[in-house]
Structures are given as structure tokens and as C-alpha cells.
Specification:
Radius of gyration: 39 Å
Number of helices: 5
Shape: rod-shaped
Oligomer: single chain
Number of strands: 0
Helix content: 55-70%
Order of helices and strands: HHHHH
Largest sheet: none
Length: 137
């Protein structure tokens, strides 16, 4: 064998970096370690997605509760969720006012004040239908 043929045989017999497992320059890691890192990253991504979903759910619940606390809408779900309105009271009140202006039937329909029913004052004498009819004339 010549020197050139011996050099070719030596080059082909050297294991590649993948076959070696450990590389002296530190650019590669063992397969088991990489699989462990990938599994850990996958679990972290799943946990992050679950946390984001839960945070969104809680944000929506808080938004609905804040809208309901204003007592200005019949159904708090009528106002579309917006994370920007969650921490700004003035913007929330403005959005509710705009919604009521555009759709007045969304407003609360609870009667307030005197609606002409029930006891309206002290009764000094017993009820008389004749007296009541005289008041209406």
C-alpha cells in the first residue's frame, strides 16, 4: 500500500461526530440528554398554553363581573370582551354608554324611584274606595 492509500483508509475508518457521541469541541450532546431537554420544553409549552388559557378565562370573568357591577346593562355578556377595557374605568363606562346609545334595549329595565305602587306614606285612616275615587277626579 502506498502512503496515499493508507491515508484514505484512515479517513474512512474514523467515526463521524454523530457516531462518537461526545465531541471534544462541545457542539453536540448525547441523544438521551437532547431528548430529555425536548420533553421538558414540550411540557413547558403545554403548561404555558394552559396558563394563558386560564388567564384569558379569568380575564373574561373579571370583565363580565365589572360590567355587571355597573348595573347599566340587562345582560353583561352583551358588551363584547376587550382586554383594553379591563383596567380602565372611564373607557369601560364609555363603551357601555356607546352600546346603550346604539342599542337602547340592552339597558337595564329595572324600575327606579316611585312607580305608584305600594305604601306611599303614613295612613292615618283606613282605606276608603270612595275617597280614592274622589282623588282621581
Amino acid at each position: 500500500m502506498t502512503v496515499e492509500q493508507t491515508a484514505e483508509v484512515e479517513q474512512t475508518e474514523e467515526p463521524t461526530e454523530v457516531e462518537q457521541g461526545d465531541n471534544d469541541d462541545g457542539d453536540t450532546f448525547p441523544r438521551a440528554y437532547v431528548e430529555t431537554l425536548r420533553a421538558e420544553a414540550k411540557d413547558n409549552r403545554k403548561r404555558a398554553e394552559a396558563a394563558e388559557a386560564r388567564a384569558d378565562e379569568l380575564g373574561r370573568a373579571l370583565f363580565t363581573a365589572r360590567v355587571a357591577a355597573t348595573n347599566r346593562l340587562q345582560d353583561p355578556a352583551d358588551l363584547e370582551y376587550s382586554p383594553d377595557l379591563l383596567h380602565d374605568d372611564e373607557a369601560l363606562n364609555g363603551a357601555i354608554e356607546d352600546l346603550i346609545t346604539k342599542r337602547p334595549h340592552y339597558a337595564t329595565r329595572k324600575p327606579t324611584g316611585s312607580v305608584g305602587q305600594g305604601i306611599t306614606g303614613k295612613q292615618e285612616q283606613p282605606f276608603s274606595l270612595l275617597d280614592r275615587l274622589k282623588q282621581g277626579v
